[in-house]
Amino acid sequence: DESVLNRYSRDFVITLFAHAHASGFRFQTFLGAWKFYTSYTLKTFDGKRYLEDFADRVTMVALTLAQGDETLATQLTDEMLSGRFQP
Known about the structure:
globular
């Protein structure tokens, strides 16, 4: 969403996405992965291709919730990837 991304510098957004992807997140259970990919992830209209992964989703949620606060966005990303926070 443009209104979310405009609150941050381009460099910060790119860095946060890279940080999330570098975390090496893996779902702990098949059920967790199945639920995410069947219910939450962004897909093409025909449902044949996924347009995001969990790290992408977490990053955008963190950027949205932090409302321009880069420190909070980073903390939220880390908390969601660790499983300690689920909005």
